[in-house]
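Students often ask why inverse folding is considered easier than folding. One informal answer: many sequences map to the same fold, so there is more than one right answer. In these notes we will look at a single instance of the problem. The structure comes first.
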């Protein structure tokens, strides 16, 4: 594959309610931060991809709300509906087409203006499942239970993820929920949907993230610290929950295998220095880490307990604090990519993994991780 780099990134602080900012305001802030980071003007950007969702925005053609503020005027602009990692994949594909030397991609969400239970309930089949009232939280609770039963993972194991990630957030200026927690604090928090307590779940959040991707020539022209795309792939599983094994992320394993093959990764636990994964719930960090080959199936809880996934460990997972510390839904994967960029540039401050050269990032779409998008990024 031709060399593609991330040359600019911008993030708004993730907050529970950006009451003074609308969608366009958030996009303006993130886009201008990304342009400044890349040393570019908007006229230097070839085209634009916005990532949004009509349900979460509460309007049709939601991409139009952020087009002008993202610099779409007189440029080719397209929209991807779903997680920002897929928008970035489209951005990369446009560059690889040879038609565009650079692409700006944005992702935004204002969860504060949404009713997530109604939105995620609508994702289910309208004939057989939607009328049951199931939503993403209750479906994820079923997946958590299936995973726990098969692997022997306990509620205490899940709680350790929350303790770690909220603690990591204390050193991340973009995080919404930096907290000192204990396992007992997590287990004592409100039971939302058995086995998930409140502190096992990510919060409602507002935020926007923007990345600029470029071909090799453009990257070297503008950027002093390009972060190179070593591999990227995505894969989907069956739509109906009953048609797949919820305890095993089959589509993530397949996507990771393809991305690793592109990047020349044959031993993920040895060749990858850190990971940013989609931890909307505590159990997901463990499941997704295993799906990414960062631990044997059912053994992520042991690596977590041993401190391997800590900032000072052998393979930090969500050193940024992850989504448990702030979850702007559609932008979530882009935030994971941006946090990996910060690490690979050596700009993550107190959360920095010393000598980090290679990172894996994961985003997802669909119910209980139906589809996964995996990126391998490197600074060499």
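Output (designed amino acids):
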């Amino acid at each position: 594959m031709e060399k593609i780099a991330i040359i600019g990134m911008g993030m708004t602080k993730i907050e529970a309610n950006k009451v003074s900012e609308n969608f366009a305001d958030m996009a303006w802030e993130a886009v201008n931060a990304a342009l400044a980071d890349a040393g570019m003007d908007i006229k230097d950007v070839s085209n634009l991809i916005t990532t949004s969702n009509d349900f979460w925005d509460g309007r049709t053609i939601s991409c139009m709300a952020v087009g002008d503020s993202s610099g779409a005027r007189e440029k080719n602009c397209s929209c991807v509906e779903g997680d920002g990692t897929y928008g970035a994949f489209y951005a990369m594909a446009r560059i690889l087409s040879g038609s565009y030397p650079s692409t700006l991609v944005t992702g935004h969400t204002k969860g504060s203006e949404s009713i997530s239970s109604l939105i995620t309930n609508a994702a289910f089949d309208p004939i057989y499942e939607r009328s049951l009232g199931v939503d993403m939280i209750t479906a994820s609770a079923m997946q958590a239970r299936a995973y726990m039963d098969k692997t022997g993972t306990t509620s205490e194991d899940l709680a350790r993820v929350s303790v770690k990630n909220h603690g990591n957030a204390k050193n991340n200026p973009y995080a919404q929920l930096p907290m000192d927690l204990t396992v007992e604090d997590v287990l004592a928090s409100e039971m939302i949907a058995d086995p998930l307590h409140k502190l096992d779940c990510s919060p409602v959040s507002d935020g926007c993230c923007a990345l600029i991707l470029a071909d090799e020539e453009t990257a070297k022209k503008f950027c002093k610290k390009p972060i190179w795309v070593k591999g990227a792939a995505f894969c989907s599983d069956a739509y109906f929950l009953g048609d797949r094994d919820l305890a095993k992320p089959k589509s993530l394993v397949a996507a990771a295998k393809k991305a690793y093959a592109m990047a020349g990764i044959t031993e993920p636990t040895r060749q990858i220095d850190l990971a940013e994964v989609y931890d909307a719930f505590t159990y997901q960090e463990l499941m997704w880490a295993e799906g990414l080959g960062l631990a044997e199936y059912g053994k992520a809880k042991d690596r977590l307990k041993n401190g391997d996934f800590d900032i000072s460990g052998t393979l930090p997972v969500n050193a940024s604090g992850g989504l448990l510390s702030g979850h702007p839904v559609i932008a979530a994967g882009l935030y994971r990519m941006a946090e990996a960029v910060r690490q690979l540039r050596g700009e993550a401050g107190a959360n920095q993994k010393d000598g980090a050269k290679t990172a894996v990032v994961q985003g997802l779409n669909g119910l209980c991780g139906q589809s996964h998008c995996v990126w391998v990024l490197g600074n060499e």
